[in-house]
């Protein structure tokens, strides 16, 4: 499973852990009915998207009881739940290629096996940092799922058709907060500017193409093809907020090939600790 010290024990644990049932919620029938089994390449692509949603949902969950308003506690919690739903569907489909469940993939992989983008791994920071991350990711996901609805892969198309309706709300939610923070107090504006500046170096990786996409012509969405629509969608929001697009260095990225930021390991340790401490448990 990995080549790090203790990797053999991790592999043994993963093989023997049994099924971990975290709830009794089932996936939507239209996403799992029929004999659909992902090819290795399609499974890898589903991991890309599923891991992005899973990691971002874990990040947003940390705001519950800590958001600046009670209503925002509920809003961010609902966004996180939507993303968990997307992650479950995508990881379920990815797991069909290797006979693993979505729980296996969420809780029993190690850091190099994840395929999340660096931008979703960035710490929450203050509320403005979180909104800056949501603003970028929600707009990207909306453009992605809008296009993925036309995928030649029926399962990916069905997942996208459901997800795009939810990320449209996520997009509107982040737009409103960008405007509110930018036109609020001097301090809220300063924090919004800082949040965008800190997150912007990670945007290039979002739209970077990979050889996998060449092998999935008609199935996957080419990331670089989404950039024009993304730029066009965020431009009026930034203009109304009187915010400029940050300039600066470009982060190297590497999440799609298992090269992650320093933050992911800590996040996974927290996310996976209960399952690994009580393998086979159900509640």
Folded structure, characterized:
α4 packs antiparallel against α8, α7 runs antiparallel to α8 and α8 runs parallel beside α12. The radius of gyration is 19 Å and the shape is globular. The longest helix is centred in the middle third of the chain and has 29 residues. It contains 13 helices and no strands. With 283 residues, it is mainly alpha-helical.
**CATH architectural type:** Up-down Bundle
Structural class: mainly alpha
Radius of gyration: 19 Å
| Count of helical regions | 13
Q: What is the fourth-level CATH superfamily? A: Ferritin, core subunit, four-helix bundle
- Remind me, CATH topology? Ferritin
- Distance between the first and last residues' Cα: 27 Å
Strand content: under 5%
Q: Largest beta sheet, briefly?
A: none
Provide the helix percentage.
55-70%
CATH class: Mainly Alpha
- Give the mean pLDDT: 89
Question: Segments where pLDDT lies below 50 for 5+ residues?
Answer: 1-25
Question: What is the total tally of β strands?
Answer: 0
Secondary-structure element order, N to C: HHHHHHHHHHHHH
Categorize the overall geometry.
Answer: globular
Number of domains: 1
Give the topology.
Elements (H helix, E strand, L loop, with lengths): L6 H10 L12 H4 L7 H22 L8 H26 L6 H6 L10 H4 L5 H22 L5 H29 L3 H14 L3 H4 L4 H5 L11 H15 L22 H14 L6
Helix pairs in contact: 3-4, 4-8, 7-8, 7-9, 7-12, 8-12
């Amino acid at each position: 499973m990995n080549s790090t010290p203790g990797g053999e024990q991790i592999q043994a644990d993963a093989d023997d852990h049994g099924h971990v049932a975290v709830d009794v919620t089932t996936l939507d029938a239209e996403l799992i009915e029929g004999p659909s089994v992902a090819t290795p390449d399609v499974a890898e692509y589903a991991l890309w998207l599923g891991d992005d949603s899973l990691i971002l949902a874990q990040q947003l969950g940390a705001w519950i009881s800590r958001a600046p308003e009670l209503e925002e506690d509920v809003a961010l919690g609902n966004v996180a739940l939507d993303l968990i739903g997307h992650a479950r569907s995508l990881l379920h489909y990815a797991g069909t290629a290797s006979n693993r469940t979505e729980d296996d993939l969420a809780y029993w992989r190690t850091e190099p096996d994840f395929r999340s983008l660096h931008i979703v791994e960035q710490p929450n920071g203050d509320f403005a940092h979180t909104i800056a991350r949501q603003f970028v990711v929600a707009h990207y996901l909306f453009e992605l799922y809008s296009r993925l609805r036309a995928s030649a892969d029926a399962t990916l198309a069905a997942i996208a058709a459901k997800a795009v309706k939810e990320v449209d709300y996520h997009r509107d939610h982040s737009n409103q907060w960008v405007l509110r923070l930018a036109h609020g107090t001097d301090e809220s504006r300063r924090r919004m500017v800082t949040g965008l500046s800190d997150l912007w170096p990670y945007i290039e990786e979002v739209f970077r193409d990979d050889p996998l996409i060449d092998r999935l012509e008609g199935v996957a969405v080419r990331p670089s093809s989404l950039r024009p629509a993304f730029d066009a969608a965020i431009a009026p929001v930034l203009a109304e907020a009187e915010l400029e697009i940050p300039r600066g260095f470009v982060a190297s990225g590497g999440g799609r090939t298992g090269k992650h930021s320093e933050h992911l390991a800590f996040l996974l340790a927290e996310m996976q600790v209960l399952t690994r401490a009580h393998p086979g448990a159900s509640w």
